[in-house]
C-alpha cells in the first residue's frame, strides 16, 4: 500500500529519531526523580556505566545503588511492558481492521488476571516468587487458546465472531475473578488481589527484566516483519489474498505474537489498560497509517507513555504511591475521548 505523500519516509525518520530521543530523556528523568533526587549528569553517567560506556562525571555509591538497583529495573520493566502493549495494540487494530481494539479483547489480560488471582487465592505465590507471573502467563495462554479453538470450530470465522468470543470469554473470566474476590476470607490476600488487578511496577528487579525481555523483544521483532501484510489486510481479505498474503496464517501468527507479548507483560505488572488502545491512535498522527512505520513507532510510544505514567504514579501524591494502571486509565481515557472527538470532527469537515 503506497504511503500518502504527507506521511513519507523523511517524516517517519524524523518521528523515529524524536521518539528514541524522547524515550532516552524520559528514562533519564524517571531515574533522577524520587525521594532521593539525583542530578541529571550523574544519572546519565550511571546509565552509561550500566551500558559499558564511560562519562566524566562523579557520583556517590548511594546514587549508584538507588539508580542501578532500585529505579532502573523498574523503569526498564515499564518500558518493555509499554512497548509490548503499544505494538500489540497497533497489530491487533490492523488484524481486526478496527481502531477500537486492544490486546485485552481476545482474553489475554483477563486470562492472565484469572491465573494471577488463582495463585494469590490458593496460596501458590507462597511457594515461589515466580509462581504469580508464571500462573498469569499460563492463564493468558489458555484463554487465547480456548478462544481461537472455539473460533476455529465455529461456522462463522469472521473477525466479528472472534471479537464477540473475546467479549464473552472476558465476561466469564471477570465473573470468576469476582467469585474469588468475594470468597476471600483473608484481608491480606484480598488486598494483594486488588493491588495486582490495578496494575503496578513496585519492587521490580533485574530478574523481572530478564524474565520478560526475551519474549517481548522477539515478539516485537517478528511483528515488525508483518508491516506490509497488515497494510494489505486493511484493504480486505480478498485483496490481501490476491496480493500473495496468507491471511489466515498471518492472522494466527499476529494474534499469537500479541498474546505472547501481552501475556508476558501482564504477568509481571498486572492489568494495565489503555496503552494498547490510545498509543497507536496518537502515533498515527505522527507517522500515518502505514504499519511498516506504525508498529515500531507504537512500541517506542508505548514505552514512553508507560514510563511517564509510572513517574506520575510515584510523584503526584508523595509519599503515597498510586498504581500505574490507575494513572494510565486517568491519562488514557481523556486522551482517547479527545482522539474520538477529533476524528469525528475531521469526518464532518471532509
The helix content, as a percent range, equals over 70%
CATH superfamily: ABC transporter involved in vitamin B12 uptake, BtuC
Shape, principal axes of CA atoms: globular
Number of domains: 1
Return the CATH class. Mainly Alpha
Average pLDDT over all residues = 86
Total beta strand runs: 0
**H/E series:** HHHHHHHHHHHHHH
Radius of gyration: 21 Å
CATH topology: ABC transporter involved in vitamin B12 uptake, BtuC
Largest sheet: none
Structural overview:
It contains 14 helices and no strands. Residues 1-6 have low confidence and may be disordered. It has helices at 9-32, 40-50, 61-96, 108-121, 131-153, 159-183, 187-198, 206-224, 227-233, 237-242, 247-269, 275-287, 291-315, 324-349. The relative contact order is 0.16. The chain is mainly α and 350 residues long. The chain has a single domain, classed as Orthogonal Bundle (ABC transporter involved in vitamin B12 uptake, BtuC), CATH 1.10.3470. Helices cover 75% and strands 0% of the residues. It starts with 8 loop residues before the first helix and ends with a helix. The protein is globular, with a radius of gyration of 21 Å. Helix 1 (9-32) packs antiparallel against helix 3 (61-96), helix 3 runs antiparallel to helix 11 and helix 4 (108-121) packs across helix 5 (131-153). Belongs to the binding-protein-dependent transport system permease family. FecCD subfamily. One of its GO terms (molecular function) is transmembrane transporter activity. InterPro entries: ABC_BtuC-like, ABC_transptr_permease_BtuC.
Amino acid at each position: 500500500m503506497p504511503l500518502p505523500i504527507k506521511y513519507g519516509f523523511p517524516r517517519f525518520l524524523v518521528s523515529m529519531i524524536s521518539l528514541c530521543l524522547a524515550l532516552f530523556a524520559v528514562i533519564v528523568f524517571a531515574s533522577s526523580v524520587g525521594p532521593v533526587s539525583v542530578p541529571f549528569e550523574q544519572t546519565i553517567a550511571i546509565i552509561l556505566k550500566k551500558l559499558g560506556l564511560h562519562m566524566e562525571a562523579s557520583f556517590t555509591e548511594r546514587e549508584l545503588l538507588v539508580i542501578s538497583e532500585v529505579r532502573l529495573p523498574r523503569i526498564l520493566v515499564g518500558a518493555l511492558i509499554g512497548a509490548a502493549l503499544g505494538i500489540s495494540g497497533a497489530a491487533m487494530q490492523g488484524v481486526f481492521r478496527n481502531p477500537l481494539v486492544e490486546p485485552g479483547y481476545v482474553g489475554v489480560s483477563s486470562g492472565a488476571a484469572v491465573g494471577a488471582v488463582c495463585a494469590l487465592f490458593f496460596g501458590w505465590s507462597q511457594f515461589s516468587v515466580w509462581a504469580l507471573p508464571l500462573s498469569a502467563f499460563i492463564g493468558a495462554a489458555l484463554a487465547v487458546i480456548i478462544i481461537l479453538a472455539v473460533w476455529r470450530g465455529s461456522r462463522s470465522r469472521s473477525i466479528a465472531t472472534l471479537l464477540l468470543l473475546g467479549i464473552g470469554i472476558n465476561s466469564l473470566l471477570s465473573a470468576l475473578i469476582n467469585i474469588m474476590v468475594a470468597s476471600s476470607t483473608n484481608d491480606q490476600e484480598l488486598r494483594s488481589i486488588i493491588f495486582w488487578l490495578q496494575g503496578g511496577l513496585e519492587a521490580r528487579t533485574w530478574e523481572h527484566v530478564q524474565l520478560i525481555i526475551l519474549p517481548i523483544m522477539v515478539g516485537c521483532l517478528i511483528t515488525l516483519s508483518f508491516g506490509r501484510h497488515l497494510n494489505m489486510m486493511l484493504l480486505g481479505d480478498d485483496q490481501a489474498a490476491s496480493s500473495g498474503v496468507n491471511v489466515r496464517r498471518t492472522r494466527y501468527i499476529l494474534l499469537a505474537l500479541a498474546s505472547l507479548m501481552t501475556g508476558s507483560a501482564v504477568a509481571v505488572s498486572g492489568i494495565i489498560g489503555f496503552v494498547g488502545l490510545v498509543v497507536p491512535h496518537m502515533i498515527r498522527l505522527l507517522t500515518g497509517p502505514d504499519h511498516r512505520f506504525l508498529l515500531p513507532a507504537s512500541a517506542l510510544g508505548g514505552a514512553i507513555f508507560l514510563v511517564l505514567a509510572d513517574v506520575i504514579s510515584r510523584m503526584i501524591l508523595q509519599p503515597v504511591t498510586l498504581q500505574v494502571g490507575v494513572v494510565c486509565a486517568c491519562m488514557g481515557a481523556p486522551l482517547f475521548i479527545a482522539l474520538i472527538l477529533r476524528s469525528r470532527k475531521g469526518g464532518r469537515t471532509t
